Amino acid sequence: MTRDLGRLALGAAIGLPAPLLLALVLLSAPATLLGGLGLVLFAAAVWLVRRLAGLQRDRFEVPRPYRSMPSGVLPRARALLQDPATWRDLAWLLSQFALGVAGVAVGFGLWQAALQCLTAPLLRALLPGRTGFDPAVLEFTHRSAALAWLLVPVGVGLVFLAYRAPGLLLETQTRLARALLGPTAKARLSASVEHLTATRAAAVDASAAELRRIERDLHDGAQVRLVALRMNIGLAEHVIDADPDTAKALMAEAKASAGTALAELRDLVRGIHPPVLADRGLAGAVQALALSSAVPVGLDLRLERRLSAPVESAAYFALAESLANAIRHSGAGTIRIIVIDEVHRLTMTVCDDGRGGADAGKGTGLQGIRRRLSAFDGTLRIASPAGGPTTLTMRLPCAS
Questions:
Q1: Dist CA 99 CA 9 (whole Å)
Q2: Are 53 and 172 members of one domain?
Q3: Domain closes at, from 239, 272, 305
Q4: Domain membership of residue 79 as a residue range
């Protein structure tokens, strides 16, 4: 109850600057297109309105709907004028002013009225005569003692209303914030299209980079081995009659080259889609990763079904890259991997007790994980304070 009253008071405080800011915006907006002082006043007013709206969004977990701003003072001011979110913020602030003041008046007024009604007989006894500062309830209690006692059950009802009213008033403020401060359906659609375009472009870039890697590995590895193999076999063919010992040496070298080429091709295929992933699923593949790790890895795998092949592949390589990063950079003594199938999404967590300080902006490993997940509308969250520990939380949609 006290917490709700405090939140009502905070909502009223957020809405109090509304008349001043609204007047400032309306007076300065026409002059903004011409620049000068009007531009400065408009920018300052909109900045303050957005800060207040940001406080309310944080209170009720409402996403921000603002458009990206161009460079330059005048283009930025014109973009603010043309952004529907600017005017929706103003409409919200004016409504919040009315709701906030009304909420505080009702929330605290009900408790005051309930207290006066509950103590009406006592007030009548303590203040039998009229003074200049009588509570409003004494207008009734001075008339008769029976009426004073009848106000007691009324006070009980007011206590119930006073207990419930703040929650209802806060719910009204929440609905108002989500209606006016959240992105519109058009804005959400536009943001979804932009996100889809960006993630698909990242997926195409990642696929192209993967193809280049495969081409490079084939060119520099297996292809070189196979060329050497062909040359050795050709030389052995020419000298086999004249110098059998040399031919045998060349064939032995060719055999070794064939074995090396075969091993490189297997590693390459394993990098494209590990056989253990196809045979045993994600759980078995992650167990294989843990067994081959140079650092002890604890596993908590809650997988009751096979996921689609693309999702399993993305999840496996994200976990493999996360594990490799932890081993290579964190200096960790232990690593823990948690994989939970939540029906509609897969949540993967990789924790290590290393030195911390992991930053996606400082290396390509975490960026690669984020790109791989974004192709499936997945997300990566990094918590890595200096001194550790580091926790990577990856979420991947996997609807049945």
A1: 11
A2: yes
A3: 272
A4: 2-180
